[in-house]
Amino acid sequence: MQRRSLLQAAAGTVASLGTPRLFAQGLPSGPIRIIVGFPPGGGTDALARVLGQKLGVMWGQQVIIENKAGVAGVLAADYVAQQPSDGSTLLMAHINSHALAPSLQPKLNYNVERDFVPIMLVGVTPNLLIAGTMQPAVTVKDIVALCKAKPGEISFGSAGSGSAQHLALEMFKLSAKVNALHIPYKGSAPAITDLIGGQINYCFETMTAATPHVKGGKVIAIAQTRIKRAKGHPTVPTMAEQGFPDFEATTWYGLVGPGKLPKGLAQKINEDANKVMAMPDVQERLDSYGAEDGGGSSEKFTAFIHTEIAKWAKVVKEGNVKSDT
Q: Which listed residue, of 108, 115, 200, 261, carries a Cα 20 to 30 Å from 299's Cα?
């Protein structure tokens, strides 16, 4: 009888090994948090909620989206870097915290490539170069000519010093060899309000924030800042198409964990997140936010972050860019 019980127990163990179960994969038994470094309602928050809801269903446990806004996403990144590496706390990383901050904030408490394990790139969105409807120059060529005719007088708003929008402007200034006036705001909304009102001339703005105003006819979309056109704006030419072949200044989002997250656990989360990304309704939501080219391996995301850090460090140095955060 004892021998039969042992055989049955062994058979059960083999069966459980052959059928992957949630806890056998090393995921924690309690709720899993995805930390977002911005307030609810923005692009980062929206993408985290799309992913989190689907993963929660797949895993059969609660996935909580927790907002820790501050310092353009750096506050949340600093928090996650210090959390246990057991999969219970993840971060929806952002270009600000994981590509711009390393060169803009010399006293950063974390090291992006040491203190985080990249899991998966969720999406890349272009910025849009936009103008108020009263602006006479509405092509990149004409804006460059205007900036050269009036150096330091043509104003570009941004969501704040050191933001992705600000860095897009600095890349433009370096590429076009022009001097333009940077006007930082506390977020996208007030910058776009002043653009519509004519207080400033132009903005490089996130596609998520700019699109409703473009579609409403309140601002003009002049160019988009990825090498290829986004699905959401098929008629808006890229900066590359308008004379700047290497111009790419994006906003991007990705899932990362604390620096000692086990490789097997990161791989498990990556595989499941890729399954979520392949769902038609998720793809539809991502397209509506302009978030493209997400998914793929952890290694792909690691290489992407490394390239982005180097690219923006060069812009920060050559443009002598300072952040007020």
A: 108
